[in-house]
Each structure stands twice: as structure tokens, then as C-alpha cells.
Amino acid sequence: MGSWFLRAVWCTLIGFLACCSRANSADQHALIVGVSEYPSLGASHRLFGPERDVLLMQRLLKEKLAFPEDSVEMLSEQTGKEAPSKSPTAVNIRAAFASLISKAESGDEVVVYLSGHGAQQPADGTGQHRERDGLDGIFLPRDVDRWDGSQSKAGVPNAITDNEFAKWFTAIRDRGARLWVIIDSCHAGDLSRGRAEKVRFVDPVSKDGLRIPPALYRRARDRSTREADETNDQSRFDIPDLTGMVFFYACEEHEKTIENRLPGSSDPYVGLMTYALTSVLSQAEGSLSYEALSQRMHHEYIRLRRANGPTLHIEGGDVKRSVLGLDGMKRSTLLLYQDQGSGKLYANVGAIDGIGPNSILAVYPPPGEKDGEKLLGYVSVSDVAADTCMVLPVGFEGVPKRTKRSLVGGRCEIVQYDFGGLAIAVSIDSDRGSSSTEKLESHLKDAVDLTNGLARIASSQEDADWFLRERDGKAVLVPTEQFFAGRHDHEPKPSVLGPFEIDDDLPESLAGSFRALARCENLLDLATSSREAADSEIDVAVTVRNVATGDSKWPVTTKAGDALEYQFENRGDVPVDVTLLAIDPGFGITSLFPIPGELNRLQPDEAPRKFPVDVDGSLHGRQIVVAILIEGKKGLPRANFTALEQPTLAQFRGNGPKGQEPALQQLLERAMYGGAGTRSLPSRLKRQVDFQVIPIDIVLEK
């Protein structure tokens, strides 16, 4: 290539193969498509980046990820000069996908890469659902032509629609293969870019663009607002089930992606996303998940001073899986990044994850880098927002304070929480005079140490949230309200955790319960005490009804086998990212929305979203549903808190007889009416945040 960039990117590749092994011996297949020239559209629409993009991807797959030489098919202007069948025309792209589908078999790894111009045209209505905006996204092959001038819905000649791609992608997955799709093009957004940057987008209606009749284009958009499908599109390609798939998009739906001279003004053009992806993977010396890869790519955007967009977006059912199934340790995806303006350090974890001021994070090399378990240093949390926190380097446990520069981009793990008086307070029920009291005290102390600050020994019985007591030779945890209500009753109380064997494993069993309780209590404390100021721009209506009975009055009463229909409507003026979590009576947390692959950002003008949820009646009683609503800002990834999921505690027993409040309800009431003992978010948030709490009563069938 004659470029120092290409030489530098690939100089470390060969050594990587010695330390990565594939989880199985399945075959690998890839299709790389790059379109730079559009003869029918004129020279003004020529791109320069795809020529380099496809070569970077080809080398990545062959030299870095060990794809066999004959397993990578490439269509580009250069390959088209060698053989007409390798030119990136519509017929060749369709033929290449047909071939790829025929080759894919169960267990195979398949990669599809597309680089070039994108655009939109009036939707043809062939998808499984109506397009929310009334428009089909289209990819433009080399032989694309302008609209023929008619008012019909024939479409842009030779353009390939998102519906076609959806059929191909689904066919590959349905053959049992795993699919990774990388798209470095776009079809929406604003055009404000730097002079040196080229936007990968062709205007649908302008004379210099595709010349779709403006009236036809407007009618498609207007129709979408009147006829919006009540079911939500599951992905940009209208694929309801994204199991076995991962999609990387260069930008959000309402943005445009770019190509530029990277990393410096004297270097050749390359797609921003392609540059970030190949740069991160070329330096990786261990495996990392797709999710971790996207996070490192986002920080690469920031390093290249693209903090305000475009916004890299990923979706799919396999986002937590290692890239292409390469073996490696599953590690934390909490990362440190530095604000380019202020120079301050931030971590992508916040109050909703249980972080508070003075919490300590250990910092390790970025995911995929050499010596990934080597400790670099520690940082202390100085300020907390909903989904981020500001941190400062500190000395801790004999490790000296490090410089900010040495920690930027590092992977973080939480080693010490600082809940202060909000940690779970536990006391021993010493009134019973059990012979095992001393042993329980020792085990409780060890369990508290294992929680790294999430739990503490209560200063008195009146200070306790839970009591540890011995019953029938085993240990149980009893919530404080039930402890005082039945203090001298030796009969088992329904809302308890346990029984646990009183042995060397008891500290870890208790610590696991304390962690689950702390996560639920933290979430409820924030949800019930953190309210935005009166001038908040977040205004999302969340409603739920029992589909069978039509009941929508809170608390909604339902039973096993019923379906609940939730609806979100963004009535405000800012985009909002939505996560819906259900806390069951056994302190399990289940994500209801978004499901894997779901687009969870609500735009201000978007039609209401509706989706059904079947009721799980295995644990009856009061269920608490928490809606987390956080401002969706340009340049920042979509906020998604589904990682807060946790299983129901296996040792949970019952909900209590009539008249006795279950432990979860008591926890909610403490959060709502506990006075000073609750948490709230600081006022100086990077993003506005709001919560809504929805009680659901699941009753036993008679």
C-alpha cells in the first residue's frame, strides 16, 4: 500500500495466532464488498475509503483471524478489473450471497462486510413489519442508477434493500452458522462534517442524488406516522430473532458515517469504523467479546476526536460471545476513557450498577491485549452519574498511584464498593442462645468481607436489615420486619433465605445472597428517590395492561399464563434509552426490555412501542418492574442495563401468609419511606435520567 499505517496495523499479526485457538474445527466463510465508484451518479459521489477498507478487512480475516485463502470472497473495483464477476455490481453481490448461503453449515463462522454508500427509498412493504419511518434502507452497488422519474414504487434501479439482506442473513443463520455483519455505510443523519471528511450517503431526492420524486418520498414518511406497526422492529433489518447473529453499524439510524484520512492528514482515506475495528483487533493479543470490541472501538473514536459522533452501534444475540468464537477468558467490559476536553478520567459504570463515591476499581490492560491480568493500578470514584463515574488514580493495597495516561483505555474491575450506611446491615439473632452463635458470627464476618463493601455487620439489632439465625441445625436469613414480628416464634417464617448448611461454604453462600439483595436494594433506592428537576426534558409514558382482563390500574393483577402488554411513548423533546427490569419476590432481576437485538432508543416523534410479556407464575406475589429512562445523546452508545439481570435466589422460600408483607415489598417500602437511608443521583449528570416503578401482583390460580 505504501502507507505506514497499513504496515503498522499488520506488523503484529502473525504472533497472535500462536496464542489463540478456535473453540471448534468449523469452517470459516467471508464476503467482503467495497464500492468506491458510481458511474451513473457522477464523480462527486466517488468514495476513496472502500478501496483501503476491503484490503484491511481481507488481511484481518486471513492473517489475523486465520481464515483460509479460498474462504474469503471479495468484490471491489480492483477485483472487478481482474474478473468482471468480482465487480461489486448488484447481480454479482446477489450471486455471492447465494454462494455464501450454500456453503454455510452448522457451526461455521460467517463474516459479511459492506463498505460504500447507503441511502433510503420509499418502503416496498415486503418486510415482516412496516418500516417505522416508511423508508427502506438501501445499499448502493457500483451499477446503481437514479430513479427513472416515475411516481411508481419501483425502487432505485439495482439498489439492494434491507429486506433482501434480511432474507440472506436469516438463511445463513438458519443453516446453523454464526453470523457477524459489519456495515460501514449509512442512510440517515445530518451533513455537517469537516472539509476533509466524505460522507457515505447519497441524497435520495436531490438532482445530484437518486432523484426520487420528493412528493413520493414525503408520502412514504407521512404514511409511516399514521400506519406505524404496533409491533416493534426487532432490528434494523427487520429480523425478529437475532440468535446467532451480531451486527456492527458505523452509525446510528439518524446519523451518517464518514471516511477520512486516518490517522493523520497525509494518510489515505479509510472508513472511520473500519479503521477503528482493524486497529483494535490488530493490537489484540487475546480474545475479547463483540461487546468489548465495540467499547474499545468507541474509545478509539474518542481518541480520534469523534466524541460527538457518528455513534458506533451493535446489536444481536451473540454480542457477549468471543469474536468469531476464539477461545479466551471472559473478562469485565468496564473501561476507562479520558474526556478530550477536560482531561478527566471516566469509567462506563455508574450508580445504577451500585457504584458510589470512594468505590475502588482495579485497572488492567484493555481487553484482548497481552498480559491481560497484569494489574496496572487503581482508581477511586470521585463523582457518580447514572451510567458513568468520574475517577482519580489512587494508591491502594501497596500499589502506588499511577498516572492518568498509563491507565486510559484499561479494563476495570470493582474491588471495593462504598455504600456507607446503605450497605446491607446484618445482625446475629443472639436472643435464641444457640450453641452455634459464635460460629455464625465468624461466618458472617467472613461473608461481609467477601462482598467488598456491599454488606456490613449491624451496629445493633435496631440497625439491622436482615438477621442470621440458626434453626434446626442450619442457618437462615430473616428480614428485619419479620424478625421483630415473630421474634419469639420458633416456627419457620415464610419470607426467609435459606436454609444454608453451617459449614466452610456458608460465607460464600451468604455473600452471594448479600450481593443479590444489595443489587435489588440499590436499584429500588435509586428508582424511588431519584427524581429529575422540574425542567427535565425526559417525558416517557410507561403503561401496562393485562391482555386477558384489560386491567391497567396499578398494581396490575395477573396470573401464570397471562400476557401483559407494555407500552412506551416518548412525549418529550429528547431521545430516551429505555431498559425495563422486573424484580421478582425471590430477588431475581429479569430484563423485559430490550430483548437481544432490540433497538431501545425512543425518538421524540416515534409512534408508541408495544410489546407483550408472558407471566411467569413460578414465584407468586408482588413483582416490582423498574423502568430506567436515560437521555440518548449523540456520540454516546445506547444505555442498556440488561447486565443487571440475576437469577432468583435458590434458597428463597415463600411470600408470607395474608396480612404479612413479603420481603420484597418491605424492601420497596424501606426504599420509598426510609428517609435518610436512601440513595439518589447527583444533580450534575452527563445525561438526564428518570425512573418509573410499576407493581405487578402475580396470584395463584384457585
Automatic annotation (TrEMBL):
It holds the Pfam family Peptidase_C14. One of its GO terms (molecular function) is hydrolase activity. The keyword Signal applies. Residues 29-299 form the Peptidase C14 caspase domain. Its EC number is 3.4.22.-. Keywords: Hydrolase, Signal. Transmembrane segments: none annotated. Residues 1-25 form the signal peptide. The keyword Kinase does not apply. PANTHER family: METACASPASE-1, METACASPASE-4. This is Caspase family protein.
